[in-house]
Design a protein that fits this description.
The structure is a single chain. The protein is mainly β. Helix content is 11%, strand content 49%. It contains three helices and 24 strands. The strands form two sheets. It has a 20-stranded mixed beta sheet that branches. The chain has a four-stranded antiparallel beta sheet with strand order 22-21-23-24, with no helix packed on it. The longest helix has 22 residues.
Length: 302
C-alpha cells in the first residue's frame, strides 16, 4: 500500500508540474490544459466547434492573419494573464484578426499593440456575430484604410467595455455599421457610425470620452440610445452637437462652433457663404447664410 501511495504521489506531482509548465507557455489553452509557444500553434489546434479561452503571457507576436471562419467557428476568448500581456502586430500587410461565418471573439484584459505600423488595413474585421472588447488597450497602429482601426460590417456588432485607443493616428476609428453595438464603463476611442446607426449605452460612467463621427449627419438623428448626458460623448461633425431628448442623445445645430470655424486673415478675400451647419456653399440660393469676407463674419438672408 505504501508503495502504491508513493507511486500515486509521484504521478500527481509529475502531472502538476506538467500542468504548471503548460500554463507558463506564451499561449495557454485554459480549456484543454495545453500550452503553446506561438499563437499560430494554439490557433491551429482549435477545433471547429470548440469554445475555449486562450491565456496570453508576455508579448505574443501575431505573424500572419488569424482567420476565424467555418473551420474555426468557435467561441474564443483571448485573455491576458498579466497587466502587460499583449498581442503584437508582426504581419507584413494584413488584418490581424478576421471573424467570418459565425465566429465569435472576445478580447479581455489585454493590450493589442500595432507595433508602430502604418498599413492600409484594419487591425480587426468582423463579418458577423459579436466582437467583444473588455478592458482592452489598442495602441501604436496607423490605418490608412477607409475601414478604420476596427471594421464591423453590417451583419456584425461590437460590445465595448473599458476600451482605450492610444498612439493611433489617421483613420483611428471603429467603423460601426449596425445598431447593436453596446458600450459600458470608461472608454476612450473614436466611433464612425454609418447612416442611421446609433450606439447603445449599457452603463457608461464618469470619464467616458468617445468621439463620434456620423457618415452623413442630419438634424434630430439618434446617436446614442439610453443616455441623457452629452458630456460622455463628442460629435466631431462640424455644425452639429449632441443634446438629450427623450432619454437619448440626438443631433442638434451647433451654430456657435460653425461661426467660430469660419475665420480669415486676408481682408481682401472674396465673400464666402456657409449654411447654418457650417458647410461651405459654392452657389447660395434663397435662404439664411453665414457670409465671411476677410475677417468680417455676418449672417445674411438671400
Amino acid at each position: 500500500m505504501k508503495k502504491f501511495l508513493l507511486t500515486l504521489a509521484t504521478v500527481l506531482i509529475a502531472a502538476n508540474a506538467y500542468a504548471q509548465s503548460e500554463a507558463d507557455k506564451p499561449v495557454y489553452n485554459e480549456t484543454t490544459g495545453v500550452g503553446y509557444d506561438t499563437f499560430k500553434d494554439a490557433f491551429n489546434a482549435i477545433t471547429s466547434d470548440q469554445t475555449c479561452t486562450l491565456i496570453i503571457t508576455g508579448n505574443v507576436e501575431i505573424t500572419e492573419r488569424m482567420m476565424f471562419d467555418s473551420s474555426k467557428k468557435s467561441n474564443v476568448t483571448i485573455k491576458g494573464k498579466n497587466s502587460d500581456s499583449s498581442l503584437v502586430y508582426r504581419i507584413g500587410d494584413n488584418i490581424m484578426f478576421v471573424m467570418k461565418q459565425n465566429a465569435v471573439l472576445t478580447f479581455e484584459d489585454i493590450i493589442i499593440d500595432g507595433n508602430n505600423s502604418r498599413k492600409g488595413r484594419s487591425l480587426i474585421e468582423a463579418e458577423n456575430k459579436a466582437l467583444t472588447l473588455k478592458n482592452v488597450t489598442i495602441k501604436n497602429f496607423n490605418s490608412t484604410s477607409g475601414n478604420g482601426l476596427i471594421n464591423l460590417k453590417p451583419t456584425a456588432w461590437g460590445v465595448f467595455e473599458n476600451v482605450t485607443v492610444e498612439g493611433c493616428e489617421d483613420n483611428n476609428y471603429f467603423n460601426l455599421q449596425r445598431n447593436s453595438s453596446a458600450i459600458s464603463g470608461v472608454n476612450k476611442f473614436h466611433a464612425r457610425l454609418a447612416d442611421g446607426i446609433f450606439l447603445k449605452n449599457e452603463g457608461v460612467t464618469d470619464g467616458n470620452d468617445i468621439n463620434i463621427t456620423l457618415a452623413t449627419p442630419t438634424l434630430d438623428a439618434k446617436v446614442v440610445d439610453s443616455c441623457d448626458n452629452p458630456s460622455y460623448f463628442h460629435l466631431t461633425n462640424e455644425g452639429f452637437k449632441l443634446a438629450a431628448k427623450e432619454g437619448n442623445l440626438v443631433t442638434t445645430e451647433d451654430t456657435e462652433s460653425a461661426v467660430k470655424g469660419i475665420g480669415a486673415d486676408n481682408e481682401d478675400a472674396h465673400a464666402e457663404y456657409y449654411n447654418l451647419q457650417g458647410v461651405k456653399v459654392a452657389n447660395p440660393d434663397k435662404g439664411i447664410y453665414i457670409v465671411r469676407k476677410g475677417t468680417s463674419v455676418s449672417k445674411v438672408i438671400l
